[in-house]
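Handout, section 4.2: multi-component inputs.
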Amino acid sequence: MSLTDKDKAAVKALWARISKGADAIGADALARLLVVYPQTKTYFAHWPDLNPGSAPVVKHGKKIMGGVAQAVTKIDDLSSGLLELSELHAFKLRVDPANFKLLAQCLQVVIASMFPNDFTPEAHVALDKFLSNVALALSERYR
Amino acid sequence: MVQWTDFERATIQDIFSKIDYDIVGPAALSRCLIVYPWTQRYFGSFGNLYNAAAITSNPKVAAHGKVVLAGLEKAVKNMDDIKTTYSDLSVLHSEKLHVDPDNFNLLADCLTIVVASQMGKAFSGDVQAAFQKFVAVVVASLRKQYH
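Output:
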């Protein structure tokens, strides 16, 4: 389900409205992931504190959103644009790709709760497609 | 049998006492038809589903959204035996409507998004976890009579 020009425009438009809150979105989405899908905590066993609002969660949420921001700028060619991130996730982090879908869902829930008027059904379908394609690009180097 | 914590029970009752079924039902169903367009296959008789605007303003979609929420209310009122409560509904979806049960998860996701937009900050991580657990039990119960 590749991104049409309409999808790309919708994603960029939504991003323009929400990017100021990117850090908060990232922190909330990651915190939610750990609470709603507790199996994801297994990737962060080395953190002292996995609770929402804790320093490592907030910091890492910000980092994740940095990746999303990068993906938006590389929306025309996600597989090459996210190559380094894919190698990181494939060879170093070795995150099971099923988890990308879970984080994508949490991101959308956060955006819906923070920006209900902007997260229209049209914006939702475009973002859902975009995040699926980001997940695919991140999985690129896995095998 | 599903074990519910006090928090989960209270959260589900609270959410469903606060949301407007006439808004949430239609919003969730229309969002599902827009975000996952292949789900439209089950609604051939609903008329114009050609684009998001048509779907959102389609009266049959709205009416059916309310039917879906009314069905969900049965689960809210019978949290300790959703499986039995939904036995007939499960048979209906399998043998009469022929709905691929994977679609239940898609509608569930859209419902979560709509409730999140209604509740804003109040839809915390813990509330989301409780809501998704409830919805997962509903989906599993609807799948039960598929053979």
